[in-house]
Amino acid sequence: MDGILIELPFASKNPHKLIEANIALRDYGVKLVPVDVEKLEIQSEDLEKIVTYAARYAYSILRKPVVVEDAGLFIYALRGFPGPYSSYAFKTIGIEGILKLLEGVSDRNAKFVSVVALALNESDIIVFRGEVEGSIALKPRGSEGFGFDPIFIPQGHTETFAEMGVWRKTLVSHRGNAFRRLGEWIVKNRDKLIRLL
Amino acid sequence: MDGILIELPFASKNPHKLIEANIALRDYGVKLVPVDVEKLEIQSEDLEKIVTYAARYAYSILRKPVVVEDAGLFIYALRGFPGPYSSYAFKTIGIEGILKLLEGVSDRNAKFVSVVALALNESDIIVFRGEVEGSIALKPRGSEGFGFDPIFIPQGHTETFAEMGVWRKTLVSHRGNAFRRLGEWIVKNRDKLIRLL
Q1: What ipTM did this prediction achieve?
Q2: Whether A101 and B93 lie within 8 Å, measured CB to CB
Q3: What is the structure's pLDDT at B158?
Protein backbone atom coordinates (compact mmCIF):
# COMPACT_ATOMS: atom_id res chain seq x y z
CA MET A 1 0.00 0.00 0.00
CA ASP A 2 1.23 3.50 -0.70
CA GLY A 3 -1.14 5.04 1.83
CA ILE A 4 -3.72 6.20 -0.68
CA LEU A 5 -7.17 4.62 -0.30
CA ILE A 6 -8.76 4.07 -3.71
CA GLU A 7 -12.49 4.86 -3.79
CA LEU A 8 -14.26 2.86 -6.45
CA PRO A 9 -17.92 3.34 -7.52
CA PHE A 10 -20.18 0.35 -6.75
CA ALA A 11 -23.47 0.12 -8.66
CA SER A 12 -25.62 -1.46 -5.97
CA LYS A 13 -28.49 -0.36 -3.78
CA ASN A 14 -28.07 -3.27 -1.37
CA PRO A 15 -26.45 -2.03 1.88
CA HIS A 16 -25.59 -5.60 2.94
CA LYS A 17 -23.57 -6.16 -0.22
CA LEU A 18 -21.71 -2.89 0.29
CA ILE A 19 -20.74 -3.79 3.87
CA GLU A 20 -19.61 -7.29 2.93
CA ALA A 21 -17.62 -6.04 -0.07
CA ASN A 22 -15.82 -3.45 2.04
CA ILE A 23 -15.03 -5.99 4.77
CA ALA A 24 -13.47 -8.25 2.11
CA LEU A 25 -11.57 -5.35 0.57
CA ARG A 26 -10.29 -3.72 3.77
CA ASP A 27 -6.76 -5.16 3.41
CA TYR A 28 -6.36 -4.12 -0.22
CA GLY A 29 -6.32 -0.33 0.01
CA VAL A 30 -9.66 0.08 -1.73
CA LYS A 31 -13.13 1.07 -0.60
CA LEU A 32 -16.35 0.83 -2.60
CA VAL A 33 -18.68 3.81 -2.58
CA PRO A 34 -22.29 3.35 -3.69
CA VAL A 35 -23.22 5.17 -6.87
CA ASP A 36 -26.77 5.78 -8.04
CA VAL A 37 -26.74 4.28 -11.52
CA GLU A 38 -29.32 1.92 -13.01
CA LYS A 39 -28.18 -1.69 -12.75
CA LEU A 40 -29.44 -3.24 -15.98
CA GLU A 41 -29.56 -7.01 -15.56
CA ILE A 42 -30.25 -9.33 -18.46
CA GLN A 43 -31.98 -12.69 -18.08
CA SER A 44 -29.36 -15.41 -18.24
CA GLU A 45 -28.40 -18.53 -16.34
CA ASP A 46 -24.80 -17.32 -16.52
CA LEU A 47 -23.89 -14.80 -13.79
CA GLU A 48 -20.73 -13.80 -15.71
CA LYS A 49 -22.87 -12.70 -18.66
CA ILE A 50 -25.23 -10.78 -16.39
CA VAL A 51 -22.48 -8.81 -14.60
CA THR A 52 -20.46 -8.21 -17.75
CA TYR A 53 -23.48 -6.64 -19.42
CA ALA A 54 -24.40 -4.67 -16.27
CA ALA A 55 -20.85 -3.37 -15.81
CA ARG A 56 -20.64 -2.24 -19.43
CA TYR A 57 -24.01 -0.52 -19.14
CA ALA A 58 -23.07 1.22 -15.85
CA TYR A 59 -19.78 2.38 -17.41
CA SER A 60 -21.65 3.77 -20.43
CA ILE A 61 -23.57 6.06 -18.06
CA LEU A 62 -20.84 6.94 -15.52
CA ARG A 63 -17.91 7.11 -17.94
CA LYS A 64 -15.49 5.97 -15.23
CA PRO A 65 -14.49 2.65 -13.65
CA VAL A 66 -17.35 0.97 -11.82
CA VAL A 67 -17.94 -2.30 -9.99
CA VAL A 68 -21.09 -4.45 -10.13
CA GLU A 69 -21.86 -7.73 -8.42
CA ASP A 70 -24.48 -10.42 -8.86
CA ALA A 71 -24.98 -13.53 -6.81
CA GLY A 72 -27.20 -16.58 -6.63
CA LEU A 73 -28.00 -19.66 -4.60
CA PHE A 74 -27.81 -22.80 -6.74
CA ILE A 75 -29.55 -25.84 -5.23
CA TYR A 76 -28.43 -29.01 -6.98
CA ALA A 77 -31.60 -31.07 -6.41
CA LEU A 78 -33.61 -28.20 -7.98
CA ARG A 79 -31.40 -28.09 -11.11
CA GLY A 80 -29.77 -24.89 -9.92
CA PHE A 81 -32.95 -23.07 -8.86
CA PRO A 82 -33.24 -20.24 -7.81
CA GLY A 83 -29.82 -19.39 -9.31
CA PRO A 84 -29.62 -15.95 -10.96
CA TYR A 85 -33.22 -15.24 -9.92
CA SER A 86 -32.58 -15.69 -6.20
CA SER A 87 -33.69 -12.23 -5.16
CA TYR A 88 -36.97 -12.61 -7.11
CA ALA A 89 -37.50 -16.06 -5.54
CA PHE A 90 -36.77 -14.57 -2.10
CA LYS A 91 -39.36 -11.83 -2.63
CA THR A 92 -42.05 -14.21 -3.88
CA ILE A 93 -41.85 -17.76 -2.51
CA GLY A 94 -39.26 -16.83 0.15
CA ILE A 95 -37.35 -19.11 2.51
CA GLU A 96 -40.58 -20.98 3.21
CA GLY A 97 -40.95 -21.80 -0.51
CA ILE A 98 -37.40 -23.13 -0.80
CA LEU A 99 -37.89 -25.33 2.28
CA LYS A 100 -41.17 -26.60 0.86
CA LEU A 101 -39.53 -27.49 -2.46
CA LEU A 102 -36.93 -29.54 -0.53
CA GLU A 103 -39.44 -31.42 1.66
CA GLY A 104 -38.66 -35.12 1.29
CA VAL A 105 -35.55 -34.40 -0.80
CA SER A 106 -32.46 -36.01 0.71
CA ASP A 107 -29.84 -34.07 -1.30
CA ARG A 108 -29.78 -30.60 0.27
CA ASN A 109 -26.43 -29.59 -1.22
CA ALA A 110 -26.18 -26.12 -2.72
CA LYS A 111 -23.67 -23.47 -3.57
CA PHE A 112 -23.66 -19.72 -3.33
CA VAL A 113 -21.95 -17.98 -6.25
CA SER A 114 -20.93 -14.33 -6.49
CA VAL A 115 -19.55 -12.71 -9.60
CA VAL A 116 -17.99 -9.26 -9.50
CA ALA A 117 -17.24 -7.24 -12.62
CA LEU A 118 -14.99 -4.20 -12.83
CA ALA A 119 -15.48 -2.09 -15.94
CA LEU A 120 -12.31 -0.16 -16.81
CA ASN A 121 -13.94 1.07 -19.98
CA GLU A 122 -16.71 -0.14 -22.28
CA SER A 123 -14.72 -3.06 -23.69
CA ASP A 124 -12.41 -3.89 -20.80
CA ILE A 125 -14.49 -5.73 -18.21
CA ILE A 126 -12.67 -7.88 -15.66
CA VAL A 127 -14.65 -10.60 -13.91
CA PHE A 128 -13.95 -12.22 -10.50
CA ARG A 129 -15.85 -15.28 -9.32
CA GLY A 130 -16.31 -16.57 -5.78
CA GLU A 131 -18.12 -19.70 -4.68
CA VAL A 132 -18.91 -21.52 -1.48
CA GLU A 133 -20.34 -25.02 -1.24
CA GLY A 134 -22.78 -25.83 1.52
CA SER A 135 -26.20 -27.20 2.32
CA ILE A 136 -29.73 -26.00 3.00
CA ALA A 137 -30.74 -26.10 6.67
CA LEU A 138 -33.97 -27.85 7.72
CA LYS A 139 -35.31 -24.58 9.07
CA PRO A 140 -34.15 -20.94 9.17
CA ARG A 141 -31.64 -20.06 11.90
CA GLY A 142 -30.10 -16.69 12.77
CA SER A 143 -31.12 -13.12 12.12
CA GLU A 144 -28.10 -11.41 10.54
CA GLY A 145 -27.32 -11.04 6.84
CA PHE A 146 -30.03 -11.02 4.17
CA GLY A 147 -31.85 -13.16 1.63
CA PHE A 148 -31.33 -16.90 2.01
CA ASP A 149 -28.58 -16.49 4.68
CA PRO A 150 -30.76 -18.10 7.43
CA ILE A 151 -30.91 -21.43 5.53
CA PHE A 152 -27.39 -21.70 4.07
CA ILE A 153 -24.75 -23.65 6.03
CA PRO A 154 -21.30 -23.37 4.43
CA GLN A 155 -19.32 -26.61 4.14
CA GLY A 156 -17.20 -27.38 7.23
CA HIS A 157 -19.43 -25.25 9.47
CA THR A 158 -22.54 -25.91 11.54
CA GLU A 159 -23.93 -22.36 11.67
CA THR A 160 -25.92 -20.68 8.91
CA PHE A 161 -24.64 -17.46 7.33
CA ALA A 162 -27.28 -15.61 9.36
CA GLU A 163 -25.91 -17.05 12.61
CA MET A 164 -22.30 -16.24 11.74
CA GLY A 165 -22.76 -12.51 11.39
CA VAL A 166 -21.28 -10.44 8.61
CA TRP A 167 -17.60 -10.60 9.66
CA ARG A 168 -17.34 -14.37 9.97
CA LYS A 169 -19.66 -14.87 7.01
CA THR A 170 -17.44 -12.76 4.78
CA LEU A 171 -14.34 -14.80 5.71
CA VAL A 172 -15.83 -17.84 3.96
CA SER A 173 -18.57 -16.49 1.72
CA HIS A 174 -18.90 -16.49 -2.06
CA ARG A 175 -19.05 -12.67 -1.96
CA GLY A 176 -15.98 -12.42 0.28
CA ASN A 177 -14.08 -14.70 -2.12
CA ALA A 178 -15.07 -12.76 -5.21
CA PHE A 179 -14.22 -9.35 -3.70
CA ARG A 180 -10.89 -10.60 -2.32
CA ARG A 181 -10.02 -11.59 -5.91
CA LEU A 182 -10.92 -8.08 -7.00
CA GLY A 183 -8.68 -6.79 -4.17
CA GLU A 184 -5.74 -8.89 -5.36
CA TRP A 185 -6.19 -7.57 -8.88
CA ILE A 186 -6.28 -3.99 -7.62
CA VAL A 187 -3.07 -4.41 -5.58
CA LYS A 188 -1.31 -5.48 -8.79
CA ASN A 189 -2.91 -2.77 -10.92
CA ARG A 190 -3.13 0.21 -8.57
CA ASP A 191 -1.40 2.71 -10.81
CA LYS A 192 -3.41 1.81 -13.88
CA LEU A 193 -6.67 2.04 -11.92
CA ILE A 194 -5.77 5.36 -10.26
CA ARG A 195 -5.04 6.86 -13.71
CA LEU A 196 -8.52 5.84 -14.93
CA LEU A 197 -10.43 7.17 -11.92
CA MET B 1 -57.99 -7.15 -46.49
CA ASP B 2 -56.59 -6.15 -49.83
CA GLY B 3 -55.40 -9.69 -50.58
CA ILE B 4 -51.78 -9.09 -49.61
CA LEU B 5 -50.52 -11.21 -46.71
CA ILE B 6 -48.07 -9.20 -44.61
CA GLU B 7 -45.11 -11.27 -43.42
CA LEU B 8 -43.69 -9.88 -40.20
CA PRO B 9 -40.42 -11.05 -38.51
CA PHE B 10 -40.93 -12.73 -35.12
CA ALA B 11 -37.91 -12.96 -32.82
CA SER B 12 -38.67 -16.26 -31.14
CA LYS B 13 -37.20 -19.74 -31.18
CA ASN B 14 -40.30 -21.29 -29.59
CA PRO B 15 -42.31 -23.18 -32.25
CA HIS B 16 -45.38 -23.35 -29.98
CA LYS B 17 -45.49 -19.56 -29.69
CA LEU B 18 -45.19 -19.18 -33.45
CA ILE B 19 -48.10 -21.56 -34.11
CA GLU B 20 -50.32 -19.89 -31.50
CA ALA B 21 -49.49 -16.40 -32.76
CA ASN B 22 -50.32 -17.35 -36.34
CA ILE B 23 -53.60 -18.98 -35.32
CA ALA B 24 -54.57 -15.75 -33.52
CA LEU B 25 -53.49 -13.62 -36.49
CA ARG B 26 -55.04 -15.70 -39.28
CA ASP B 27 -58.03 -13.36 -39.75
CA TYR B 28 -55.94 -10.19 -39.87
CA GLY B 29 -53.97 -10.63 -43.12
CA VAL B 30 -50.64 -11.06 -41.35
CA LYS B 31 -48.34 -13.98 -40.77
CA LEU B 32 -45.32 -14.08 -38.46
CA VAL B 33 -42.12 -15.62 -39.79
CA PRO B 34 -39.38 -16.65 -37.36
CA VAL B 35 -36.18 -14.66 -37.60
CA ASP B 36 -32.89 -15.71 -36.07
CA VAL B 37 -32.01 -12.69 -33.95
CA GLU B 38 -30.84 -12.71 -30.35
CA LYS B 39 -33.72 -12.02 -27.96
CA LEU B 40 -32.14 -9.93 -25.22
CA GLU B 41 -34.33 -10.07 -22.14
CA ILE B 42 -33.72 -7.89 -19.12
CA GLN B 43 -34.60 -8.91 -15.56
CA SER B 44 -37.76 -7.14 -14.55
CA GLU B 45 -41.07 -7.94 -12.92
CA ASP B 46 -42.73 -5.90 -15.65
CA LEU B 47 -43.30 -7.85 -18.89
CA GLU B 48 -43.93 -4.58 -20.79
CA LYS B 49 -40.44 -3.39 -19.91
CA ILE B 50 -38.90 -6.72 -20.92
CA VAL B 51 -40.54 -6.84 -24.36
CA THR B 52 -40.02 -3.15 -25.05
CA TYR B 53 -36.29 -3.53 -24.45
CA ALA B 54 -36.16 -6.80 -26.42
CA ALA B 55 -38.05 -5.32 -29.38
CA ARG B 56 -35.77 -2.27 -29.50
CA TYR B 57 -32.70 -4.51 -29.35
CA ALA B 58 -34.01 -6.84 -32.09
CA TYR B 59 -34.80 -3.82 -34.27
CA SER B 60 -31.27 -2.44 -33.73
CA ILE B 61 -29.91 -5.64 -35.29
CA LEU B 62 -32.51 -6.31 -38.01
CA ARG B 63 -33.21 -2.68 -38.99
CA LYS B 64 -36.78 -3.52 -39.92
CA PRO B 65 -40.08 -4.02 -38.06
CA VAL B 66 -39.99 -7.00 -35.74
CA VAL B 67 -42.29 -8.62 -33.19
CA VAL B 68 -41.30 -10.09 -29.82
CA GLU B 69 -43.43 -11.69 -27.14
CA ASP B 70 -42.94 -12.60 -23.52
CA ALA B 71 -45.33 -14.34 -21.19
CA GLY B 72 -45.60 -15.49 -17.62
CA LEU B 73 -47.77 -17.38 -15.18
CA PHE B 74 -48.58 -15.28 -12.10
CA ILE B 75 -49.81 -17.27 -9.10
CA TYR B 76 -51.47 -14.97 -6.56
CA ALA B 77 -50.74 -17.05 -3.44
CA LEU B 78 -47.04 -17.06 -4.43
CA ARG B 79 -46.92 -13.25 -4.81
CA GLY B 80 -46.82 -13.55 -8.60
CA PHE B 81 -44.22 -16.32 -8.81
CA PRO B 82 -42.99 -17.56 -11.29
CA GLY B 83 -44.07 -14.49 -13.31
CA PRO B 84 -41.50 -13.29 -15.85
CA TYR B 85 -39.19 -16.17 -14.93
CA SER B 86 -41.72 -18.87 -15.81
CA SER B 87 -39.57 -20.62 -18.40
CA TYR B 88 -36.62 -20.77 -15.98
CA ALA B 89 -38.93 -22.12 -13.24
CA PHE B 90 -40.31 -24.67 -15.71
CA LYS B 91 -36.80 -25.88 -16.59
CA THR B 92 -35.68 -26.14 -12.96
CA ILE B 93 -38.46 -26.90 -10.46
CA GLY B 94 -40.99 -27.77 -13.18
CA ILE B 95 -44.71 -28.48 -12.83
CA GLU B 96 -43.92 -30.71 -9.86
CA GLY B 97 -42.28 -27.79 -8.04
CA ILE B 98 -45.25 -25.47 -8.60
CA LEU B 99 -47.67 -28.13 -7.33
CA LYS B 100 -45.46 -28.68 -4.26
CA LEU B 101 -45.40 -24.95 -3.51
CA LEU B 102 -49.23 -24.97 -3.60
CA GLU B 103 -49.68 -28.03 -1.35
CA GLY B 104 -52.04 -27.03 1.46
CA VAL B 105 -52.71 -23.64 -0.15
CA SER B 106 -56.42 -23.06 -0.73
CA ASP B 107 -56.12 -20.08 -3.11
CA ARG B 108 -55.02 -21.61 -6.43
CA ASN B 109 -55.97 -18.59 -8.54
CA ALA B 110 -53.50 -17.47 -11.17
CA LYS B 111 -53.29 -15.55 -14.39
CA PHE B 112 -51.35 -16.03 -17.59
CA VAL B 113 -50.11 -12.78 -19.12
CA SER B 114 -48.66 -12.30 -22.60
CA VAL B 115 -47.15 -9.07 -23.84
CA VAL B 116 -46.35 -8.54 -27.50
CA ALA B 117 -44.18 -5.70 -28.75
CA LEU B 118 -43.93 -4.50 -32.32
CA ALA B 119 -40.89 -2.33 -33.06
CA LEU B 120 -41.52 -0.01 -35.99
CA ASN B 121 -38.16 1.66 -35.39
CA GLU B 122 -35.85 2.12 -32.43
CA SER B 123 -38.08 4.60 -30.65
CA ASP B 124 -41.51 3.54 -31.84
CA ILE B 125 -42.42 0.37 -29.94
CA ILE B 126 -46.09 -0.59 -29.69
CA VAL B 127 -47.13 -2.94 -26.91
CA PHE B 128 -50.18 -5.26 -26.78
CA ARG B 129 -51.19 -7.07 -23.59
CA GLY B 130 -53.34 -10.18 -23.21
CA GLU B 131 -54.40 -11.86 -20.00
CA VAL B 132 -56.46 -14.81 -18.92
CA GLU B 133 -57.53 -15.55 -15.35
CA GLY B 134 -57.73 -19.12 -14.16
CA SER B 135 -56.56 -21.59 -11.55
CA ILE B 136 -53.86 -24.17 -10.98
CA ALA B 137 -55.06 -27.77 -11.33
CA LEU B 138 -54.40 -30.29 -8.55
CA LYS B 139 -52.35 -32.40 -10.95
CA PRO B 140 -51.19 -32.08 -14.58
CA ARG B 141 -53.71 -33.06 -17.26
CA GLY B 142 -53.34 -33.19 -21.03
CA SER B 143 -50.35 -33.45 -23.33
CA GLU B 144 -50.66 -30.58 -25.82
CA GLY B 145 -49.13 -27.12 -25.57
CA PHE B 146 -45.98 -26.42 -23.57
CA GLY B 147 -44.69 -25.13 -20.25
CA PHE B 148 -47.29 -24.92 -17.50
CA ASP B 149 -50.24 -25.63 -19.87
CA PRO B 150 -51.02 -28.99 -18.16
CA ILE B 151 -51.82 -27.28 -14.84
CA PHE B 152 -53.61 -24.10 -15.98
CA ILE B 153 -57.42 -24.13 -16.15
CA PRO B 154 -58.79 -20.91 -17.68
CA GLN B 155 -61.76 -19.33 -15.90
CA GLY B 156 -65.14 -20.68 -17.10
CA HIS B 157 -63.58 -23.94 -18.33
CA THR B 158 -62.88 -27.33 -16.80
CA GLU B 159 -60.06 -28.46 -19.08
CA THR B 160 -56.43 -27.38 -18.78
CA PHE B 161 -54.74 -25.58 -21.70
CA ALA B 162 -52.93 -28.88 -22.44
CA GLU B 163 -56.26 -30.72 -22.75
CA MET B 164 -57.81 -28.04 -24.99
CA GLY B 165 -55.29 -28.28 -27.76
CA VAL B 166 -53.75 -25.32 -29.52
CA TRP B 167 -56.84 -24.15 -31.44
CA ARG B 168 -59.25 -24.00 -28.52
CA LYS B 169 -56.50 -22.77 -26.22
CA THR B 170 -55.72 -19.84 -28.50
CA LEU B 171 -59.38 -18.76 -28.59
CA VAL B 172 -59.18 -17.91 -24.88
CA SER B 173 -55.48 -17.65 -24.06
CA HIS B 174 -53.39 -14.69 -22.95
CA ARG B 175 -51.23 -15.13 -26.05
CA GLY B 176 -54.26 -15.33 -28.35
CA ASN B 177 -55.63 -12.13 -26.78
CA ALA B 178 -52.34 -10.23 -27.13
CA PHE B 179 -51.80 -11.26 -30.75
CA ARG B 180 -55.41 -10.48 -31.70
CA ARG B 181 -54.76 -6.96 -30.41
CA LEU B 182 -51.67 -6.80 -32.60
CA GLY B 183 -53.86 -8.02 -35.51
CA GLU B 184 -56.41 -5.26 -34.91
CA TRP B 185 -53.65 -2.65 -34.88
CA ILE B 186 -52.23 -4.03 -38.13
CA VAL B 187 -55.63 -3.91 -39.87
CA LYS B 188 -55.80 -0.19 -39.05
CA ASN B 189 -52.17 0.52 -39.97
CA ARG B 190 -51.57 -1.78 -42.93
CA ASP B 191 -50.23 0.85 -45.32
CA LYS B 192 -47.85 2.35 -42.76
CA LEU B 193 -46.51 -1.09 -41.86
CA ILE B 194 -46.11 -2.21 -45.48
CA ARG B 195 -44.06 0.93 -46.21
CA LEU B 196 -41.68 0.10 -43.33
CA LEU B 197 -41.16 -3.55 -44.27
Answers
A1: 0.89
A2: yes
A3: 98
